[in-house]
Design goal:
The protein is 28% helix and 31% strand. A four-stranded mixed β-sheet has the order 7-9-10-8, sandwiched between helices. It has a two-stranded parallel sheet with strand order 1-4. The longest helix is centred in the C-terminal third of the chain and has 13 residues. The protein is flat. The protein starts with a strand and ends with a strand. 31% of the residues are buried.
Length: 173
């Protein structure tokens, strides 16, 4: 186990959140505290561990330019790491079945364009939006497939990867 601060694995900057105030008013700047966003991933430590047959587990913490510590969304960190490693797959385990349609049924496969449309039309909402955006960013960064699956389900990763329909949502180009 390591943190994103180890060896400056994850560099970050303070997250800025702008809240729209409506008609012709400037947005309000919300201070999120020590919440950050990834600026870069230096994966040398990860590749070294993997070459030595270790599986790295990374805490989603990054380091700023002045050594400050930032807490970062874990899915976002996973997507950036997958992109930096040129991973073939990104698998996000969650407490949801996967991406659901308006009727609450699982969507087994989504294309990038469809995913954005489902965000725009309100089908995808809440905590699933950052997961989808993370997957979209990873796919645009070179990852071939991304999956969002229910980590509470027995053998979920095996069922997702080794069956035709899987048990979650696969997102592809």
């Amino acid at each position: 186990g390591l943190s994103g601060k180890d060896g400056q694995l994850i560099t970050a900057k303070k997250m800025r959140y702008l809240k729209d105030k409506g008609d012709d008013q400037p947005p309000e700047i919300i201070d999120m505290g020590m919440v950050g966003e990834v600026t870069s991933v230096k994966n040398r430590i990860l590749t070294s561990l993997m070459e030595s047959h270790f599986i790295p587990v990374v805490a989603p913490v990054g380091v700023g330019r002045k050594g400050e510590t930032y807490n970062i969304n874990a899915d976002t960190v996973a997507g950036h790491i997958a992109t930096s490693l040129k991973a073939r797959k990104l698998i996000l385990l969650t407490e949801k079945e996967g991406v659901l349609d308006k009727e609450g049924k699982l969507i087994s496969r989504l294309r990038l364009k469809e995913a954005q449309q489902l965000i725009d039309d309100g089908t995808i909402q809440g905590g699933m939006i950052p997961k989808i955006r993370c997957c979209m960013g990873a796919l645009k960064g070179g990852v071939k497939k991304a999956h969002i699956i229910d980590g509470r389900k027995d053998h979920a990763i095996l069922l997702e990867v080794f069956t035709k329909t899987g048990v979650g949502t696969e997102i592809v180009h």
